[in-house]
Specification:
- With about 210 residues, this protein is mainly alpha-helical.
- It has two domains: about 170 residues, Winged helix-like DNA-binding domain superfamily/Winged helix DNA-binding domain (Arc Repressor Mutant, subunit A); about 35 residues.
- About 50% of the residues lie in helices and about 10% in strands.
- It has eight helices and five strands; from the N terminus they run H-H-H-E-E-H-H-E-H-H-E-E-H.
- It starts with a helix and ends with a helix.
């Protein structure tokens, strides 16, 4: 299972907010967009629009990684991530995946420091143990990268997002042509909307027939 960059960012943000601000979780669409476009604790910084986040959320729902939640008295549906239960991840493992999704490849020490607000690790060894659990799975979710020249420690990266084919939105306001993944997502959303419109028209026609007076 490979995710686009948008899907990875959405999942990472949902996990982060679930662990750091549980009182505000699950997230509304507006809160999710804001979380994706944060300029702090994000690498790269992106500027997703409503359509990009909506398409990513829809795709994650189809993959079983996200569900919509509606609570009595609330005006809008909210987004709840299912990555931890879907892949049977421990709190330590899902925390590290979230940090890797949001900030790219990192060393063990960096992961320990940057995950403190989500799930504090007492020692670097605990981080390494959780990383080993991610890399040693039959379907690895993380991988150790070769140590770069001038660096003392090797870095780790997540394997959920297909980096080669992932989409990263530019932060500038300059218009860019839509990529193929975006077009596929838009076409899917249009098809869904067309289906809903057709169903509504059928219901309206039925109501008209019932209320017609001979």
């Amino acid at each position: 299972m490979k995710l686009t960059s948008e899907e990875g960012r959405v999942l990472g943000c949902l996990i982060e907010k679930q662990l750091t601000t549980p009182q505000l979780y699950p997230l509304t669409e507006k809160a999710l967009i804001t979380a994706c476009n944060q300029t702090t604790n994000r690498d790269p910084v992106v500027a997703y629009d409503v359509s990009a986040v909506r398409i990513a959320a829809q795709s994650l729902r189809e993959k079983g990684l996200l569900r919509m939640v509606h609570r009595t008295g609330e005006r809008s549906d909210k987004h709840h991530q299912l990555l931890d239960s879907f892949l049977t991840l421990s709190p330590e493992q899902v925390t590290l995946l979230a940090v890797l999704l949001l900030r790219g490849p990192q060393t063990v020490a960096e992961l320990r420091a940057r995950s403190e607000r989500m799930h504090p690790f007492d020692t670097v060894a605990q981080v390494q143990e959780a990383l080993d659990a991610l890399t040693d799975r039959d379907d690895p979710l993380a991988a150790r990268l070769e140590r770069q020249p001038g660096r003392k420690e090797a870095r780790y990266r997540q394997l959920l997002v297909d980096v080669e084919h992932g989409v990263v939105r530019p932060t500038s306001n300059q218009a860019t042509p839509p990529d193929s993944l975006t077009l596929v997502g838009l076409a899917r959303e249009i098809d869904l909307l067309r289906g809903e419109v057709t169903e509504l028209r059928t219901q309206v026609d039925g109501l008209r027939q019932e209320t017609d007076v001979d």
